[in-house]
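Support case: magnesium ion complex. Customer-provided input:
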Amino acid sequence: VRVAVIVTAAGSGTRLGREMPKALVPLDGVPVVTHALRGVLAAGVVDEVVVTIPAHSEQDFADAVALVGTDAPVPPLRCVTGGATRQASVAAGLAALGADVDVVLVHDAARALTPPEVVARVVEAVRAGAPCVIPVVPVTDSVVDVSAGVRPVDRGALRVVQTPQGFDRAVLDRAHRHAEERAADEATAATDDASLCAALGLPVAVVEGHPDGAKITTSRDLAVARMVVRDRRSQHPARPPEPPAPPVTLPEASVGPGGPR
Ligand code: CTP
Ligand code: MG
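Agent response - structure generated as follows:
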């Protein structure tokens, strides 16, 4: 089974409000998209990568990709120009996939810190035969429906949907073709891919997501992501902490291997 991932990074990040595309915004000194690629590749289940990027940003994204540098070899990776909406970008990514791909993951670059085990769970469920798989997390707030008055909703029945979402390739192709006329306009475009499959009446399977898979949308989300990165580093230091800076150097004659003479 050949698995590809489409990493959607072609958005402008209007709600984050930086001058650069959201996927290029630094998080702990490394672009958001670089974090997302590291997480998805660390799962060790992906054979091919397509990143959807904004127009005229090839060099910036090539630089961000060059920083991925996982311990395992990086699979073949291509950047393609996305579209006016996320749905259009995913369609562009799908069109760029190799003919031999059987399973497609679609992952938001903005979910920079999705743990690799979520990626692995999604792929496992697709390989086990589910045509469409979404990672979900419980809703922790009380929820009301305000479409006609205020109606409390049982949050126990609700889930928040994350990415990567996983698909049988033929199913995802069909879902996007079926919804093609919705793709050009944010008002009609889908915000995720499983909803396009559900619109075809296909069953959607769920696996457990992770709070760290939350999407970075606002500057508050970015601040939270920064804390998560720091927290991870303090729990799993990648390398021992730097030794303290050496004391002020004394003239060579005054200090030898045996201490001051
Ligand atoms: N995305 C994309 N192509 C688009 C729009 C969005 O590939 N035309 C990607 C974004 O880069 C992001 C993911 O889809 O990784 C989720 O979208 P969102 O969080 O809405 O990001 P933006 O559209 O960039 O943000 P905003 O809506 O605030 O402008
Ligand atoms: Mg958007």
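Residues 253-261 have pLDDT under 50 and may be disordered.

Case will auto-close in a few days if no follow-up is received.
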